[in-house]
Amino acid sequence: MTYEHLWKKYKNEKNVTAKKKLIENYVHLVKIVAGRLYNYYGGNVEFDDLQGYGVFGLIDAVEKFEINRGIKFETYAQIRIRGAIIDSLRKIDWIPRSLRKKSKEIEQIVGKLENKLDREITVNDISKELDMSQREVESILAQVSTFNVISLDELIYSKGDYYGRDEETPESVYQEQEIYDLLRETIDSLPENEKLVISMYYFDELNYKEIGQVLDLSESRISQIHSKAIIKLKKTLNSI
After folding, report:
1. Which residue among 30, 44, 205, 234 is least packed, with the fewest CB closer than 10 Å?
2. Which whole-number Å values give the CA distances from 132 to 103, 111, 122, 171, 193, in the listed order?
3. Residue 42, SS3?
4. What is the pLDDT of residues 18-39, one digit of tens each?
5. Are 222 and 213 in contact (CB under 8 A)?
6. What is the distance between the alpha carbons of residues 121 and 141, in angstroms, rounded to a whole number?
7. DSSP 118
8. Is the pLDDT of residue 219 over 70?
9. Each residue of 103-142: pLDDT tens digit?
10. What gap in Å lies between CA 52 and CA 50, rounded to an integer?
11. CA 228 and chain centroid, separation
């Protein structure tokens, strides 16, 4: 159902009842987006909190949606809901400082080794650089995996300013296209296993266990591959 009559009533007449009904009719989108993000944040943030942050994004989407632009509200709303949740979490700064430090150290080491060795970096390379066992490095990569996904999200939203912007400008459209093109080029240049994991995780929405079954690899190995790919994507975005 498109709820066209409600949209017209709200946008043309600023009818409060129509607005309330629209929010009620689309509130299931908040649960969908919060559910996806809970896979990243689970154990650190309550699901109800994510939904609470997301409701503000839904209200914002209903208020700012332009019914004559030919865009599906569901698509637009999910971007706003996701942005509202990420923006709220960024403000409360819930991520442990030790995890941020570990993630930064790994990023710096990977960058240093890439410049030095001029080839694909392995867990063994990182373990030698840190003077740790591969098992210890694998454990660190698993810990920072969730943080890297979240911080990539934060970086994309801050670069594109999806949540804070009320209207498109030629500059913002150009910037979004630049971000999209750079990410696409970086993903295309990834080793095949990293490209597959990124594709299945984000586009097919499979979890580590499901990806592992497809590629015949352990969950921890998928987590490592994912972490290394995300580090490269973050490096690309930071260059803008």
Report:
1. 205
2. 16, 18, 13, 46, 25
3. strand
4. 999 999 999 999 999 888 788 7
5. no
6. 13
7. -
8. yes
9. 778 878 888 888 888 877 788 888 888 888 888 887 777 7
10. 5
11. 15
What percent of the chain shows pLDDT beyond 70?
A: 77
Which residues touch 107 (CB under 8 Å, ≥6 apart)? 231, 234, 235
Q: Does residue 196 surpass a pLDDT of 80?
A: yes
How many CA within 13 A on the CB side of residue 33? 28
CA separation for the pair 156, 160 (Å, rounded)? 6
CB 227 within 8 A of CB 148: yes
- Output phi, psi for 45, to 5 deg: -135, 140
**How far is it, in rounded angstroms, from Cα 89 to Cα 49?**
10
Per-residue pLDDT, 152: 64
Q: Distance between alpha carbon 142 and the CA centroid of its chain, in Å?
A: 17
Q: Has residue 53 got a pLDDT over 80? A: yes
β-bridge partners, 45: 42
- Res 109: pLDDT: 87
Tell me the residue type at 44: N
pLDDT tops 90 at residue 93: no
- Secondary element (H or E) of residue 220: helix 219-238
In this structure, the dihedral spanned by the alpha carbons of residues 107, 109, 110 and 113, taken in order and rounded to 10 degrees, is 160
Give the phi and the psi of residue 151 in degrees, each rounded to 5.
Answer: -70, -25
For residue 47, give the nearest of 57, 62, 32 by alpha carbon.
Answer: 32
Tokens representing 141 are 């990569």
